[in-house]
Specification:
It is built from four helices and eight strands; from the N terminus they run βββαβαβββαβα. With 193 residues, the chain is of the alpha/beta class. It has one domain: TIM Barrel (Alpha-Beta Barrel). The strands form three sheets. The chain has a four-stranded parallel β-sheet with strand order 3-4-5-8, with helices on one face. The longest helix is centred in the C-terminal third of the chain and has 20 residues. It is globular, with a radius of gyration of 17 Å. The chain starts with 10 loop residues before the first strand and ends with a helix. The structure holds flavin mononucleotide. The site of flavin mononucleotide (FMN) has 9 residues, from strand 4.
């Protein structure tokens, strides 16, 4: 372990401390998509927390219906969602790990009929043609990200990770990247105060 002498040392980030530097990356398991599976999802993450991981990142959770990966996929935009997610955060914190919720808006990759994008061009991996977002709709999507982050905080998450690569919404084309990337972070920072 001499080359990795800091891996199991605590990491003080100033506003919080993670007990070591191991991270379980975001992997959507499908359990996020149905409310009745949240106890199973909590048990799954609790095992990793018990095993000693420092930080867990959930699979992608959508900020609104347009961002679903699948029909009625995992979303954080109501108080009902907060109650489900509390089961997860409670189970993880009980074993000393921290947990972030990943906010993922599927953009044109969504496998569902409400998909949106920066243009009406279909993705090769979804049969659904997206609706082009207007400037006004981009702004309301930014609000949805902020609301989602705020609810994640209420659910007990230690923070959020914003998925912004691989062709999902924020990584799409210039108007969306320009309008969303900074604004999402700023709005989230504001609601988290
Ligand atoms: C089943 C599965 C689900 C995944 N879900 C997500 C996800 O929801 N969000 C995300 O950012 N990455 C997701 N990923 C990508 C992983 O986080 C990771 O980046 C990828 O597996 C490559 O990791 P590696 O370089 O260690 O092999 C998923 C990967 C797998 C295999």
């Amino acid at each position: 372990m001499t080359s990795y002498q800091h891996v199991l040392q605590p990491l003080d980030l100033g506003f919080t401390t993670i007990r070591n530097r191991t991270v379980m990356g975001s992997m959507h398991s499908g359990l996020e998509d149905r409310f009745y599976n949240y106890p199973k999802l909590a048990a799954y993450f609790a095992e990793r927390a018990k095993g000693g991981v420092g930080l867990i990142i959930t699979g992608g959770i959508s900020p609104n219906r347009q961002g679903w990966l699948l029909p009625a996929g995992g979303t954080m935009n109501t108080w009902g969602d907060v109650i489900n997610h509390r089961i997860v955060t409670h189970a993880v914190h009980k074993h000393g790990a921290k947990i972030l919720m990943q906010i993922l808006h599927s953009g044109r990759y969504g496998y569902q009929p409400f998909v949106v994008s920066s243009s009406p061009i279909k993705s090769p991996i979804s049969p659904f043609k997206p609706r082009k977002l207007s400037d006004k709709q981009i702004l309301s999507t930014i609000d949805d990200y902020a609301r989602c982050a705020n609810l994640a905080k209420k659910a007990g998450y230690d923070g959020v990770e914003i998925m912004g690569s691989e062709g999902y919404l924020i990584s799409l084309h210039e108007p969306i990247i320009e309008m969303m990337s900074g604004a999402v972070a700023m709005k989230i920072a504001c609601v988290s105060q």
